[in-house]
């Protein structure tokens, strides 16, 4: 008999089998491969090295006879240089695999054992064993998932989209919609603001044209298993989708990118009013000069007090059910229906904000993007259902607010960096009006508001104000070192920062909690994200070794625990980006159970499972190559949001929590995070034999920058 696998070995073998999966997927049915691998796990209560090795060798020998290839498909991609592939039409991506049932159940127990009380864990063990037993509900649901995988491009996408976004009834600002903050602009006057805006809109139109012709270069994976082409579908939701509120569930409305309404238009928000700006008139796209002229007209129209209408945009900041109820009332009137239709079919929103009156540091600029400062500032100058809202403030506060359901963070960053480069290249151009007399004036959207709608607006304004006051947010720039120092320790910057976040939470609270780190699975067709569960047993051991003085560990022992934590984080990252993590799989099993059973199996009502999905620490890496950063709020009332942007010489963190939770404090978290990062550096300097000035190969990067739990 072989021996039982430890965690690191399990990850390694799972990665190996996943590569085999890619090799044989085009030569055998996915049902055959998945059932075969699942059988290996199900025949032994523990993962046995000898069994796995023999089975992998058997598959490999068959694959070589069938394909005459010695190299797995995942590795083969590396032979084709990234520059050779320019269109998503040139690539064929594999389907997302369904992980083996026993593997997921085993990993689930390992992920939760150290996060729940011992008695609760023992109860969970029994429940999980019963669920995964031969002939039990797990086997039936697994088979149904495999059948679903054969029929669909991506078996988990719709389940995941509903669970992550569309079923969520919370308001979009802070709770769901992230923001990207640009470098502050120095506008000398209103015309400077409008020139910048015209340049921005021109860049949007250029980018949309690239999307319409499928001319956007294909993205390739970075970090672990780098070089593989990624699914580009998310890009086509940037300017052609809309989140429609529903009473119990929202709908993501999408139109094909090459089906465009004529004339194309964007919506400009100014002084809480909404205006239609046609960007194509008489089959001619407006120049930057034309756009500048039209924006000046909008500014003048928005200043007209006699024409001012109620701030309808406030309704979109409310809870999703409340907004759906209000929208039902609005659409009873044809004027309102027409206005809603113009917003929903628009390419994007451009929000011309008034000065906030606050000191313009990074924290306050981020708050303006996250919630607009409340109804009495710019909070009503938004339409949160639209995926892309570009904010251009008179005081130079600029950025993007996003409805997150159509795309992930890295897609947004790629788009924004393209736009900013376009704007930088065109900034020196002289913008002047041309063909002024031929341009029809922009149109103000009209609203007819009943007394009931007026009451709902007042309620929405009050809730937004409470949200503004409750958000505890700060931008923390750790300047002592950045990712270059981490690379010189031969460690992954992302894994290093994740371990630092775990150490920080333990420093503050004396425990670890379920943690979400979003990781891209775009190497698969229609892939979005899955979760890297960063609160590993190894991270807990390291945190205890660093904080608990009674252990009295030597520096060498602490360093070994540190390395173990980095390895565990890296291994789980590999599992996640190759489609073998547990969260999406458990979600699929649960939703399949809803469809086929009258009651959910105990595993999904067990307190451990409920705890596993309360992500007190919600994290995401969103790196940028230009001067900007991403931020978002916590996902539960007693949680933290921690978005980070590693740069060569510093790391920028956006820390969020809620003030009405007595357990959390963003400022205390930031302070403890700085202490953790310094302690880790000191430990590296003491124990790492590699001189910090010498070059070192970069370790794994989770590609967690490609999404988040939001």
Please tell me the CATH architecture of the largest domain by its name. Answer: 2-Layer Sandwich
**Would you report the number of β strands?**
18
| Unreliable residue runs | 19-83, 257-263, 690-710
Give the structural class.
Answer: alpha+beta
Counting structural domains, the number is 3
Query: By CATH's scheme, which homologous superfamily of the largest domain applies?
Result: Choline/Carnitine o-acyltransferase, domain 2
Give the strand content: 5-15%
Using the coordinates shown, work out and report the CATH topology of the largest domain. Answer: Chloramphenicol Acetyltransferase
Q: What is the terminal-to-terminal distance? A: 45 Å
Q: Judging from the principal axes of the Cα atoms, what is the shape?
A: globular
Which bin fits the share of residues in helices? 40-55%
Mean pLDDT value: 87
| CATH C-level class of the largest domain | Alpha Beta
Please give the radius of gyration in angstroms.
Answer: 26 Å
Number of helices: 22
- In order across it, which strands form the biggest sheet? 11-5-4-8-9-10-1-16
| Biggest sheet layout | 8 strands, mixed
Write up this protein:
The chain has 710 residues and is an alpha+beta fold. The protein folds into three domains: 1-79, no CATH class; 113-162 and 479-706, Chloramphenicol Acetyltransferase; 168-473, 2-Layer Sandwich (Chloramphenicol Acetyltransferase), CATH 3.30.559. It is built from 22 helices and 18 strands. It has helices at residues 7-25, 30-42, 49-67, 73-76, 101-112, 118-132, 137-151, 157-166, 190-212, 288-302, 320-330, 334-344, 362-371, 409-426, 451-470, 483-488, 493-509, 537-547, 555-577, 583-596, 607-612, 666-687, and strands at 179-182, 241-244, 251-254, 265-270, 273-278, 280-281, 284-285, 349-353, 388-393, 398-402, 443-444, 471-478, 515-520, 529-532, 617-621, 628-631, 640-646, 651-658. An eight-stranded mixed β-sheet has the order 11-5-4-8-9-10-1-16, with helices on both faces. Strand 9 and strand 10 form a beta hairpin. The longest helix is centred in the first third of the chain and has 23 residues, at 190-212. Mean pLDDT is 87; it is low at 19-83, 257-263 and 690-710.
């Amino acid at each position: 008999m072989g021996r039982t696998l430890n965690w690191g070995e399990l990850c390694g073998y799972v990665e190996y089998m996943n590569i085999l999966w890619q090799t044989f997927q085009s030569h055998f049915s996915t049902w055959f491969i998945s059932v075969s691998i699942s059988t290996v796990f199900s025949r032994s209560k523990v993962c046995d090295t000898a069994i796995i090795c023999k089975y992998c060798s058997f598959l490999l020998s068959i694959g070589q006879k069938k394909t005459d290839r010695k190299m797995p498909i995942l590795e083969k991609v590396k032979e084709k240089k990234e520059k050779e592939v320019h269109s998503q039409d040139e690539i064929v991506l594999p389907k997302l695999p369904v992980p083996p049932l026993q593997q997921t159940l085993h990993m689930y127990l390992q992920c939760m054992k150290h996060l729940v009380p011992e008695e609760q864990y023992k109860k969970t063990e029994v429940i999980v064993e019963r669920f995964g037993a031969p002939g039990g509900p797990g086997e039936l649901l697994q088979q149904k998932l495999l059948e679903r995988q054969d029929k669909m491009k991506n078996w988990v996408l719709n389940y995941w989209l509903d669970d992550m976004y569309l079923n969520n009834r919370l308001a979009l600002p802070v709770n769901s919609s992230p923001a990207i903050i640009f470098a502050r602009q120095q506008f000398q006057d209103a015309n400077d603001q409008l020139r910048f805006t015209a340049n921005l809109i021109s860049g949007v139109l250029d980018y949309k044209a690239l999307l319409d012709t499928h001319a956007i270069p294909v993205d390739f994976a970075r970090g672990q298993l780098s070089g593989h082409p990624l699914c580009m579908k998310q890009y086509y939701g940037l300017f052609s989708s809309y989140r429609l509120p529903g009473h119990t569930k929202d709908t993501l409305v999408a139109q094909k990118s090459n089906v465009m309404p004529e004339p194309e238009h964007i919506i400009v928000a100014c002084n809480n009013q909404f205006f239609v700006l046609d960007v194509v008139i008489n089959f001619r796209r407006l120049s930057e000069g034309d756009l500048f002229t039209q924006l000046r007209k909008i500014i003048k129209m928005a200043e007209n007090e006699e024409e001012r209408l109620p701030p309808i945009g406030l309704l979109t900041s409310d809870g999703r059910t409340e907004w759906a109820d209000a929208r039902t009332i609005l659409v009873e009137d044809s004027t309102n229906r027409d206005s809603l239709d113009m917003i929903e079919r628009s390419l994007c929103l451009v929000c011309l904000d008034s000065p906030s009156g606050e000191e313009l540091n990074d924290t306050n600029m981020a708050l303006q993007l996250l919630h607009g400062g409340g109804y009495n500032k710019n909070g009503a100058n938004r339409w949160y259902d639209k995926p892309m809202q570009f904010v251009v403030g008179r005081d130079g506060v600029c950025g993007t607010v996003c409805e997150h359901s159509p795309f992930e963070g890295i897609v947004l960053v790629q788009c924004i960096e393209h736009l900013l480069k376009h704007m930088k290249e065109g900034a020196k151009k002289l913008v002047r009006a041309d063909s002024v007399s031929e341009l029809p004036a922009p149109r103000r959207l009209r609203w007819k508001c009943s007394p009931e709608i007026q009451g709902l607006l007042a309620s929405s304004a009050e809730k937004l104000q409470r949200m503004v006051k409750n958000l505890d947010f700060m931008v923390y720039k750790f300047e002592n070192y950045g990712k270059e120092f981490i690379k010189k320790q031969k460690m992954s910057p992302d894994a290093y920062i994740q371990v630092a976040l775990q150490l920080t939470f333990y420093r503050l609270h004396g425990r670890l909690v379920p943690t979400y780190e979003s990781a891209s699975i775009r190497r698969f067709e229609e892939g979005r994200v899955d979760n890297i569960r960063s609160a590993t047993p190894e991270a807990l051991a390291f945190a205890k070794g660093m904080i608990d003085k009674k252990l009295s560990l030597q520096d060498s022992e602490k360093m070994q625990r540190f390395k173990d934590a980095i390895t565990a984080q890296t291994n789980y990252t590999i599992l996640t980006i190759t489609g073998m993590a547990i969260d999406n799989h458990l979600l699929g099993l649960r939703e399949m159970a809803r469809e086929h059973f009258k009651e959910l199996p105990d595993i999904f009502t067990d307190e451990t499972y409920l705890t596993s999905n309360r992500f007190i620490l919600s994290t995401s890496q969103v790196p940028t190559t230009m001067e900007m950063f991403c931020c978002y709020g916590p996902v539960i009332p007693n949680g933290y949001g921690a978005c980070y942007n590693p740069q060569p010489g510093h790391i920028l963190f956006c820390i969020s929590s809620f003030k009405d939770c007595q357990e959390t404090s963003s400022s205390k978290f930031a302070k403890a995070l700085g202490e953790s990062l310094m302690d880790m550096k000191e430990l590296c300097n003491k124990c790492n034999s590699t001189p910090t000035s010498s070059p070192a190969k970069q370790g794994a990067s989770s590609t967690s920058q490609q999404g988040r739990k939001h």
